[in-house]
Amino acid sequence: MSTALADSLGMFAFLAVELSLLFVIVAFLVSVLRQRIPQHTIDRVLGAGHARSYWLAALIGALTPFCSCSTIPMLKGFIRARAGFGPMMVFLFTSPLLNPIVVVLLAVTFGPRLTAIYMVAALVVS
């Protein structure tokens, strides 16, 4: 077996284990939060009828790392908690657009002004 193929298989195995572990941990944490937070609180905080629900969903989406291993379990938790459709979609759109990794990389690469423009545009689009 060639070295490149062995390295590729090793990286694949490492990433498969790492991402599976991340998915299980986030799914567990969402499940624990879902059990601890009452339904009426979720309705009040993430209901579709409140403007602050959309901003909160955007904030939660911005804080999650860019990875479906965190976005999908959280979205599933929102669905099970019967959060509003609008806030769920804002979370789903914001999660890959605004996250700490993207924001830091943009700030280092292009500067704070362009990063701020990107963040505002991503929030408006979401």
Task: Record the SSE blueprint.
Layout: H1 3-36, H2 39-46, H3 51-63, H4 68-80, H5 85-97, H6 100-110, H7 112-125
Protein architecture, described:
This protein has 126 residues and is mainly alpha-helical. It has 7 helices and no strands. The protein starts with a helix and ends with a helix. The model has no long low-confidence stretch (mean pLDDT 83).
List the keywords:
126 residues; flat; mainly alpha; single chain
Brief summary:
The chain is mostly helical and 126 residues long. The chain has seven helices and no strands.
Structural class: mainly alpha
What is the residue-mean pLDDT, rounded to a whole number? 83
Number of helices, counting only DSSP H or I runs of 4 residues or more: 7
H/E topology pattern: HHHHHHH
Q: Nearest-angstrom radius of gyration? A: 18 Å
